[in-house]
Specification:
eight-stranded mixed β-sheet; 13 helices; 8 strands; about 45% helix; about 15% strand; disordered N terminus
């Protein structure tokens, strides 16, 4: 019993130490778990004023948004979910198509009794955000997308040809066996290869996210996000057939990553698109150049 307690306490201490070094949300943010019908979504809520939803991508959780949330909470109600299957949200068997996850976002907002929102998204969050904005355009006042494609939109077929994106087709039971116990190695590949300078994705953040993705079902759920891309492309082409997004869109790329390509993608889906490229950054904009990224987003939303 003593040995078990010591191991358990050591694990808690290690996790807490790693968490303490990752930027934290302001103390007045509250957390809760909201049932969306298909999943249990962990959500952080703080601030006061017009609502803004922040959606993260793969290799991270809603924790990436802490610096932006602190700034926006001065004059916004900020809602930060962990996407289904990631972070502290549940790991259901299905529902990883982005249209279903847009339903998670809608259910969270309905529970919080919030109608209209600004939307800020990154990576896979872009895909969920697009499905939400295209499915319920009347609920989104402004839309910011950070560095990433959207299945079936714009030059999607050409983007798929990039050798760097082999992970889009990586998944299944054998792949899960390969990465089990090696989650940090697998995730380091993303943080290293998609950054302008890997050192800017610091060790505390790497430990923190690797621990969360190593939770039971974490890697499986991550692979399911990518497995759903073919269905996402079908769904998004149906959205496109109904018309362009009407709200103002800010398409942001990292200088050493998507750059202007985020805007190229979104000009195929929205009628009012502004383009910004963040210097000295790769894909991980909130880690690599948070000052410029936060400033760019805040300026657009205001």
């Amino acid at each position: 019993m003593r040995a078990f307690a010591l191991v358990a306490w050591s694990a808690v201490l290690l996790a807490t130490t790693a968490r303490a070094q990752v930027p934290s949300f302001p103390a007045n943010f509250k957390t809760r778990t909201i049932s969306t019908g298909g999943a249990q979504i962990f959500v952080r809520v703080g601030g006061q004023g017009p609502a803004v939803v922040l959606l993260h991508g793969y290799g991270e959780t809603g924790d990436i948004w802490a610096p932006l949330a602190a700034r926006l909470a001065r004059d916004h109600t900020v809602i930060v979910p962990d996407l289904r299957g990631m972070g502290l949200s549940s790991h259901p068997a299905g529902g990883y198509d982005k249209k279903a996850q847009a339903g998670d976002v809608a259910a969270v907002l309905d529970t919080l009794k919030i109608d209209k929102v600004d939307l800020v998204t990154h990576d896979i969050g872009n895909m969920v955000g697009y499905a939400f904005a295209a499915g319920q355009p009347g609920r989104v006042t402004k839309f910011v997308l950070l560095d990433g494609p959207v299945p079936g939109v714009g030059p999607w077929d050409e983007i798929l040809k990039s050798p760097l994106l082999w992970h889009f087709r990586f998944g299944g039971p054998d792949m899960e066996r390969l990465v089990k116990g090696r989650e940090r190695i697998y995730l380091d590949r993303f943080w290293n290869e998609f950054s302008a300078d890997p050192k800017r994705f610091d060790e505390a953040s790497r430990r923190h996210y690797a621990r969360l993705y190593a939770l039971p079902g974490g890697m499986h759920s991550g692979f399911e996000q990518f497995k759903a891309f073919d269905q996402d492309a079908i769904d998004n082409k149906a959205f496109l057939a109904k018309g362009m997004l009407p709200m103002p869109v800010l398409a942001v790329g990292g200088e050493a990553s998507f750059g202007p390509m985020t805007a190229v993608v979104m000009r195929a889906a929205a009628s009012n698109v502004q383009e910004v490229v963040i210097p000295h950054s790769g894909h991980w904009l909130m880690e690599e150049n948070p000052t410029a990224t936060v400033s760019t987003i805040v300026d657009f939303l205001h």
